[in-house]
User: Fold this.
Amino acid sequence: MFGTFQQSTLRIELDVSAAAIRACLLEPQQFRQWLWPQQFSDGLPDVLQPGTTFASHLGPITIHHQVTDTTPQHLRLIMAGGVDGFHEWSWGDGWVQSRLEGISLLPLNLAQTTNLWRLRQFLAPQPTPPEPS
Assistant:
């Protein structure tokens, strides 16, 4: 693999439960929404489990993922292709952390920051419209 070794750990606070964060990270139906326009392989299970493999595509870039670990508050993926390395997610009530290490030509910290911002936007409470008077 060509590129530079990069590592980054980012943690943000979210005003949501650990269960809501877990659903966004482990359920393809959810992560397809907040990671759009990134596309994912067809045929994914309802919930990611260890041993699940899939590919993601963003334009000409393809990354192959293998789920190696899932717990109620942790997800670990091995990546190959556009990034050779791993991505770990940890979470709890009110926070999520992303740890990424890999070799890539891509700016991994920028992609990681963007994805955490998109997750925050996806999970943000929607304003209640005013009631008609």
Summary: The chain has one domain: 4-123. The beta strands are 4-13, 39-40, 53-58, 61-71, 74-81, 84-92, 95-104.
